[in-house]
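User: I've been trying to design a sequence by hand for this structure and keep getting stuck. Would you show me what you'd pick, starting by listing the structure so we're on the same page?

Assistant: Good idea, let's start from the same input. This is the structure you sent:
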């Protein structure tokens, strides 16, 4: 593939647009460069803000693959294998099925394209191909066909040069910078914490310690809400140390909570006073148990309290 000379500002503008309608996030140039640190792309993006930049086509594709992964649009970074050739290694012990399914692809792809063209659509229905792969080559054949089709669909979805790139998935935008600010506004896509922030943090777990402490509480409340609990989040201050109260779905909310949750988004290790304080709050509120959610580690003293009292810890 050849090189592309990019007009000043076009690289950042294109990324802003694609990230916006695919992930629903508005990401500044500074934040985008920060997310892509460790690659060569921040220099190219910054240079292009004021001048022409030349990148190879495959470099632009890789930039989009990495950027869309870092903002949480994909659950893993796409490596550009748009033909699904990885199946030859994944199913190396099933040469007969590999060869057979490959022949089916050669046979069926032109047919599916013809059907789509006659129907006036750009979407192809792979159902006949998958059915024949299953009938002729069993479950392994079906898995091979599915993996290849998924790779092809992913490549089409993420490729900045593909027309399918411009299909909007989010109608509104959420500024990524808001994750570091306090807000009591009800999220557009969630009860306590917006799904777009969840998608972002799922791929950037190391940044959880950077979000605003109130966002950390809201994220924790969203988790228990989705787990089926009735959740009441505290005011964020003067809440007597109880950040979240939660009841089983069938429990009487006028009674004691099923559990109380304390959230600690901090860099310092959790001390034993915090652990003992949570235990005291559980007893005082009549809850069945308490949960401490933190972005930090437990101190030696806190671990001793946990061990002696038989509390459970999760990594």
């Amino acid at each position: 593939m050849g090189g592309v000379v990019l007009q000043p500002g076009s690289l950042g503008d294109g990324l802003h647009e694609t990230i916006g309608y695919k992930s629903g996030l508005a990401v500044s140039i500074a934040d985008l460069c920060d997310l892509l640190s460790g690659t060569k792309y921040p220099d190219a993006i910054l240079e292009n803000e004021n001048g022409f930049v030349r990148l190879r086509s495959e470099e632009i594709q890789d930039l989009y693959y990495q950027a869309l992964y870092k903002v949480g649009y994909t659950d893993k970074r796409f490596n550009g294998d748009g033909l699904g050739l990885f199946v030859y290694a994944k199913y190396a012990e099933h040469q007969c099925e590999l060869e057979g399914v490959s022949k089916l692809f050669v046979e069926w792809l032109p047919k599916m394209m013809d059907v789509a063209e006659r129907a006036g659509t750009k979407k192809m229905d792979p159902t006949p191909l998958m059915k024949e792969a299953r009938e002729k080559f069993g479950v392994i054949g079906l898995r091979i066909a599915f993996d290849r089709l998924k790779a092809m669909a992913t490549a089409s979805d993420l490729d900045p040069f593909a027309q399918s790139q411009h299909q909007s998935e989010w109608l509104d935008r959420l500024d990524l910078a808001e994750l570091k600010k306090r807000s009591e506004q009800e999220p557009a896509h969630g009860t306590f914490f917006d799904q777009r922030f969840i998608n972002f943090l799922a791929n950037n777990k190391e940044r959880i310690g950077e979000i605003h402490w109130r966002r950390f509480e809201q994220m924790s409340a969203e988790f228990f809400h989705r787990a089926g609990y009735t959740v009441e989040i505290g005011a964020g201050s003067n809440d007597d140390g109880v950040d979240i109260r939660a009841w089983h779905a069938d429990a009487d909310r006028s009674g004691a909570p099923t559990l109380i949750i304390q959230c600690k988004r901090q860099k310092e290790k959790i001390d034993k006073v915090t652990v003992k304080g949570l235990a005291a709050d559980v007893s005082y509120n009549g809850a069945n148990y308490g949960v401490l959610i933190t972005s930090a580690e437990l101190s030696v003293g806190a671990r001793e309290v946990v061990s002696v009292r038989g509390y459970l810890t999760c990594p």
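That's my pick for every position. To get oriented when you compare it with your attempt: The chain has a mean pLDDT of 92. The two ends are 45 Å apart (CA to CA).
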